[in-house]
Design a protein that fits this description.
The structure holds two protein chains of two kinds. Chain A is mainly alpha-helical. Helix content of chain A is 76%, strand content 1%. Chain A folds into two domains: 1-252; 260-459, no CATH class. Chain A has 19 helices and two strands. In chain A, strands 1-2 form a two-stranded antiparallel ribbon. In chain A, a hairpin with a 4-residue loop joins strand 1 and strand 2. The longest helix of chain A has 32 residues, at 144-175. The two termini of chain A are 27 Å apart. The radius of gyration of chain B is 21 Å and the shape is globular. Classes of the chains: A mainly alpha, B mainly alpha. The A-B interface holds A 309, 312, 350, 361, 364, 366-368, 372, 376-377, 379-380, 383-384, 388, 391-392, 395-396, 398-399, 402-403, 406, 410, 413, 452-453, 456-457, 459 and B 23, 65-70, 131, 134-135, 138-139, 141-142, 149-150, 157, 161, 164-165, 168-169, 172-173, 175-176, 179-180, 182-183.
């Protein structure tokens, strides 16, 4: 039992930190709650490091401490710190600021749980916890737009979660156990395996915003504060995708579910980028782009169990995605939501312009940036699993994505249309914290691209 | 041992970083940094040239761990195929920096991009690791995009986007082929030397990889029908950009065709050689005819690139078909020499058109006339470069094209109809020379200045090189031949 507690230390620290943050908020000490949150996350990261290389389960096999659940901590805990800094710069001195930090920590905790899922009940717990905290985060500004976004999100999520829970009962009925490791029993009853899998796809598909379960995400991101949108596009999404990997690892490799995932991947990439091509609002554009990026993640999920590159690519691409996507969102916080706000931005602010270029080119997958090495490994994994056609479609989508991101790049370097609001939109948010996040993200985007060996070596 | 190759790859990058770190500096200093950096790079290349290369395999090899977990490493080296291209790159970049020293518009960013481009070009020619190759290959694309979008002419945005999307679409199949060869090699590695020695793929898989790579390199070369990005990009790019694009970046395609397609999937290439040969012959003739129809000087020269690169494709296809080792060597010698000659000659021509455009702000050949009297030095340089480009004996292209046709006659006599291309290019250059430099003087240009010292400094070395290469090609050919005789058999 004690050993289990030690293995779960990072999760426990995050939970306790969330509680302390809420207590501080009750005492009206938002700054302290931020400091506590950051210290707590750093501690949790620190206590994760000894776990690298562990491969075991706790609580009678219901929760896994393995490569996926360890690495998601090393990726998402720092990502959460960056998100907290962004949230602070945008929402400082707003009503009950500290609750935002508490809720963010709750979403992070839920994502960690999802990545270590070894049992159906853990899966449901993770999805629901993550959902509840996310609705509140989206609704936080209490504007009409935010409320509407949160309502849409809530309705969509409730239906998706209910369907998932309903469908999962088939697995329970089929195996007589809630443990995922018992799923191999379903070899002889493919119908039940597929029904349960469909339920998982609906639940996790909504959480990671995959087509056709993505409808909530552009509205929710647009209604929420930009920092929260950035956070939601990274942390819960990666958590859900890792849960996908955990579950499919135990399902017998079959071309049926592989094909299903591959089709969802194709739809997400293609529709995501096509929709992004139409957007004039950068947050919505990035929302659709992150739908498409989720489709790329699925290249690794397809190859789970049939290629040794699958886990490696999933982890490297997650780290890359965190850096480049959070970076892009923080630039949006600095500049503004409208495409027109970007007009001439790169000419005026050389370094911010270069940073945004790095993030966008990395999202396209241009070497030597992080997105390239991530996608490269993803392609390798899918090819190794025999899905060359999927890689070809992914490659074609990379070209499409260039058209999407070039729209921002061209706007950035054109001569400004009107100079009137170029100066005032920067003052609203605290630029120092954003600057810090941008610098860290840009550094990581290059560093992971050139030195991904640091991650690969311990896999 | 002094890491010469790393120095010449990263020296330009260091110059670029230096400029990036120092915020506000005058245009003169920026250009000076560019010139000094590229001059130092050239010095390193010349030093390496003086040391020579090994008879077998790659020389000056450097290897450091990079991503051992997946078998990727930092591996660079040169042989007789890449070393002449490295020399060409160093020369053209230095001259481009000298030529564009008068650019005032955001000169710092301009120099940074050019230096980045030089690093990318050097890296592409010397990489011995497939990932490293791909990284440099793509970085060159990004820098060239910004070059065209930022310093190009009237319709630059559209041309730049077309260039970027087209060539990204073109280069991604290469990634597919690289992954295929990686998964096919045992143990998994990205070492190009291993791939060349062992040809990791065979049969149908090799054919698929070959087709993917052929697509990539055909876009880059560019070969008909994938050449449509080239006229737009060339016409809109700034003069130095055009020089680098034609002189250096098109060579990525033909270099890749030799290094990857020919050396790594030789069997598939042999099977498909006839198709490649037809593409080459058609490109060469099509490029010449299309050039003949142009009135825009830059567009015309851009199409002659399609023509000259067509000969290189023919030569590589002939090498793939060759049964005799000597024919193989002759064809490849011709191909590599043609690349170098084309870089020098087309470089000179694009500089000259850039100079005309600086003065007259037009590229339409019919708007000029009788310039031979007004600007004699410029005119004679243009005439020499044109004659070289149409393959006159004694000038740069002749020895290369002669070898290519020789090998073609030996292996596939029918394909020697490609010689027709020479006749057509002769016609188009004579037409251009007649329109621009001969005939009645156009009053509008009477006050046109002849070459300035800066321009003379740019063109002089190129013209000398063009003549030397025509008269005594052996100083480059020996290096090429040293490697080509050992390849393939």
């Amino acid at each position: 039992m004690l050993k289990d507690i030690l293995l779960l230390l990072p999760e426990i620290i995050v939970l306790l930190t969330a509680v302390f943050v809420l207590i501080c908020e009750m005492l009206r000490l938002p700054r302290t709650s931020l400091v506590i949150a950051i210290v707590g996350l750093l501690l949790a990261t620190l206590f994760t490091i000894p776990l690298i290389g562990a491969d075991t389960t706790v609580f009678s096999g219901t929760y896994r401490i393995d490569i996926l659940s360890v690495w998601i901590k090393l990726i998402l805990l720092p990502a959460t710190i960056l998100s907290l800094l962004l949230a602070r710069s945008e929402l400082a001195n707003s009503f009950r600021e500290g609750t935002v930090y508490g809720l963010i920590l709750m979403v992070t905790l839920a994502s960690l749980i999802l990545a270590g899922v070894g049992d159906i009940m853990m899966l449901i717990l993770g999805i629901l916890l993550s959902g509840l905290a996310s609705f509140a985060l989206v609704a936080y500004p209490r504007t009409d737009a935010a409320t509407e976004a949160a309502m849409k999100f809530f309705v969509f999520a409730s239906v998706a979660s209910s369907v998932m829970i309903f469908g999962l009962t088939y697995w329970f009925a089929g195996t007589g156990s809630t443990l995922l490791s018992e799923l191999s029993q379903l070899n002889n009853s493919p119908a039940i395996a597929v029904l349960g899998l469909l339920a998982v796809i609906i639940g996790l598909g909504y959480k990671s915003a995959l087509v056709p379960f993505h409808f909530w995400s552009p509205d929710a991101y647009d209604g929420a504060p930009v920092s929260i949108a950035g956070f939601l596009s990274v942390v819960p999404k990666i958590g859900a995708l890792f849960a996908f990997a955990q579950i499919l690892k135990d399902l017998p490799v079959s071309s049926h579910w592989q094909l299903l995932i591959a089709i969802i991947s194709v739809m997400s990439m293609t529709l995501g980028y096509l929709a992004a091509l139409m957007q004039k609002n950068i947050v919505r554009l990035l929302a659709y782009s992150s739908i498409a990026q989720a489709g790329y993640f699925l290249l690794a999920i397809v190859a789970i169990g049939s290629s040794h590159l699958a886990i490696q690519s999933l982890i490297v691409f997650s780290a890359a995605y965190v850096a480049m996507n959070l970076g892009a969102f923080s630039i949006v916080m600095f500049v503004g939501k409208k495409l027109d706000d970007f007009s001439g931005f790169g000419r005026k602010h050389t370094y911010f312009g270069v940073a945004m270029l790095i993030f966008l080119l990395s999202l396209v997958g241009i070497p030597p940036l992080a997105g390239f090495i991530g996608k490269f490994l993803l392609f390798g994994a899918a090819m190794d699993a025999g899905f060359t056609w999927l890689v070809i479609i992914a490659i074609l989508n990379s070209v499409l994505s260039l058209a999407v991101y070039l729209r921002i790049i061209i706007t950035m370097y054109q001569i400004p249309v009107n100079n009137l609001d170029n100066s005032n939109h920067e003052s609203k948010n605290n630029p120092k914290l954003i600057l810090l996040v941008i610098a860290i993200s840009a550094f990581l985007t290059i560093y992971i691209g050139v030195f991904s060996q640091v991650i690969l070596i311990s896999l | 041992m002094f890491p010469m190759l790393s120095t010449l790859i990263f020296l330009p990058l260091a110059g670029a970083l230096l400029l990036l770190l120092f915020g506000k500096i005058s245009p003169q200093i920026s250009h000076l940094v560019g010139i000094i950096t590229s001059a130092l790079t050239l010095v390193v290349v010349l030093w390496m040239w003086s040391l020579g290369i090994n008879d077998i395999g790659f020389s000056h090899v450097e290897q450091y761990d990079w991503m051992p977990a997946i078998g990727a490493a930092y591996r660079v080296g040169v042989d007789g195929i890449s070393l002449p291209l490295v020399l060409l790159t160093a020369v053209l970049f230095l001259l481009s920096f000298i030529f564009s020293a008068n650019i005032k518009k955001q000169s710092r960013s301009y120099v940074i991009l050019m230096l980045l481009l030089e690093t990318a070009a050097m890296g592409t020619f010397t990489a011995l690791d497939a990932i490293l190759f791909y990284v440099f290959f793509e970085v060159s694309l990004v820098s060239m995009y910004f070059m065209i979008a930022g310093w190009g002419h009237e319709d630059r945005q559209r041309a730049a986007i077309m260039f970027f999307i087209y060539t990204l679409l073109g280069s991604l199949p290469l990634l597919l082929a690289i992954l295929g060869m990686y998964l096919g090699s045992d143990p998994h590695t990205f070492d190009m030397r291993v791939w060349i020695a062992e040809s990791p793929l065979s049969g149908f898989a090799a054919m698929l990889a070959f087709i993917a790579m052929l697509f990539t390199f055909a876009v880059k070369i560019p070969a008909f029908p994938l050449h449509t990005w080239l006229p737009a990009a060339h016409v809109q790019a700034p003069a130095a950009g055009s020089v680098i694009l034609a002189g250096v970046m098109l060579k990525f395609g033909t270099y890749g065709l030799i290094r990857f397609s020919l050396q790594m999937t030789p069997e598939a290439f042999r099977e498909a050689a006839t198709v490649v040969l037809v593409i080459g012959v058609f490109s060469a003739i099509y490029g010449a005819f299309a050039g003949l129809a142009q009135t825009d000087l830059k567009r015309m020269i851009a199409y002659t690139s399609v023509n000259h690169m067509g000969y290189v494709i023919v030569a590589v296809a002939i090498a793939a078909m060759a049964i005799e080792p000597s024919t193989y060597a002759i064809a490849l010698d011709g191909a590599v020499l043609q690349m170098v000659s084309h870089g020098l000659v087309t470089g000179a021509l694009f500089f000259l058109v850039g100079m005309l455009q600086d003065r007259a702000h037009t590229r339409d050949m019919h708007k000029f006339g009788g310039l031979l009297k007004t600007v004699p030095i410029l005119a004679w340089f243009f005439i020499i470069a044109s004659f070289a480009s149409l393959g006159l004996p004694g000038l740069a292209h002749f020895p290369a094209e002669f070898q290519i046709f020789l090998a073609t006659l030996e292996v596939k006599p029918l394909a020697s109809i490609v010689i027709l291309g020479i006749v057509i290019t002769a016609a188009l250059y004579l037409k251009a020379i007649a329109a621009v430099f001969l005939g009645s003087e156009n009053k509008q240009w009477q006050s046109m200045q002849d070459l300035s010292p800066r321009e003379l400094l740019t063109l002089g070395p190129l013209i000398i090189f063009i003549i030397v290469l025509g008269v005594a090609p052996s100083f480059i050919l020996d290096v090429i031949h040293q490697t080509t005789v050992t390849l393939g058999f």
